Amino acid sequence: MEPVASMIDDPSKEKIFHDVDYDGRMILTYLGVRPRPVFDTMIAARILGKDKVGLADLLGEYFGIEMDKRLQRADWSQRPLSLDMLEYAALDVAFLIPLRDRLAEDIEMLGRTGWAREEFERLVENLESMPEREVSALKVKGARELNPRQLAVLQKLLEWRERKAAQVDVPSFKIVGSERLLELARKHPRSRHELERSGILTPRQAARFGNEILAAVRSGLKVPEWQQPRFPKQEHQKRDFDAEKILKGLKRVRDLKASELGLDPGFLMSNAVLKAVARLKPASIEEMKESGLLRGWQIEAMGDSLAEVINRIR
After folding, report:
1. I need a surface site. Which of 12, 133, 197, 290 has the fewest CB within 10 A?
2. For 56-87, how does the pLDDT look when each residue is reduced to its tens digit (9 = 90+)?
3. Whole-prediction pTM value?
4. 2-125 belongs to which CATH class?
């Protein structure tokens, strides 16, 4: 893979992606390089304020091409890939260069080329290698309803499922769904009879995995109390009433500016960033730059308006 890594790492060659965040993390993880410079057609579409930024939507808008969106939800782990899937994958990249050129032209007409460059560079700079998959009972939806003993059982079930999925090379949810594991942890059947009578598993799952699941349940029940998973107690922050007032004003300013620029408000500035700004209360453009909370193009677009709100309320 060295030639591929070398090409991706070559700063003289622009790499075109549609959503570099996912592909870029895969490249960094397996090839050890960051793909720069890049042009991200999805981010470019957002900078243009388009409502629909999916690749299929953009190809339809610019080139009248219709892609079968059903294949987006296909099982791409299956082998061999069907002819329809191969054609879909080829279309995924066949029009990226002309699409890039059309989007770049439109961005330049709006005077937002600098915004795009900054956003592309930020995306690449913030890429992180994909961590080795770790399973945690505390991250399963609905787990807060379980007590520590049940959480210990759920943790062992999750670890078993992960190992089994790796053995047969399929996604973990195809072994047993998380909802079923949650119910197994809640009832923790101790025998084959209890397991089958519970009806939690399908007959096929019970036949294939029943003994292994019971072993995982027994292992979870043996976890000492001091080692059982527990959700951390939530700490309540003291309310900052000025920050709350500032946040309301910042959101109004952001929404008005987004409408003026034809941008999605969340893309112009997310609520999370606005909350951080409201708490920090930077009163000038210089303080905003020093905070590191905002990108240069965001400060250019609405820094003065943000500062006005903050100074009026603080």
Report:
1. 12
2. 899 999 999 887 777 777 777 777 888 888 88
3. 0.74
4. alpha beta
Q: Return the CATH class of domain 241-313.
A: mainly alpha
Domains 137-227 and 241-313 share a fold: yes
**Can you name the CATH fold of 137-227?**
DNA polymerase; domain 1 (1.10.150)
CA separation for the pair 286, 277 (Å, rounded): 13
Long-range contacts of 56-63 (CB under 8 A, 24+ apart): 58/99, 58/103, 59/91, 59/95, 59/99, 62/98, 62/99, 62/102, 63/95, 63/98, 63/99
What tokens appear for 170 in the block?
């399929």
Q: Which two tokens stand for residue 50?
A: 């388009």
Domain locations along the chain: 2-125, 137-227, 241-313
In total, the chain counts a number of residues equal to 314
Tokens 């969340």 -> residue: 266
Structure confidence by residue, pLDDT tens digits, 125-152: 999 887 767 889 999 999 999 999 999 9
Residues 268 and 258: beta-carbon distance below 8 Å: yes
Q: What whole-number distance in Å separates Cα of residue 51 and Cα of residue 116?
A: 17
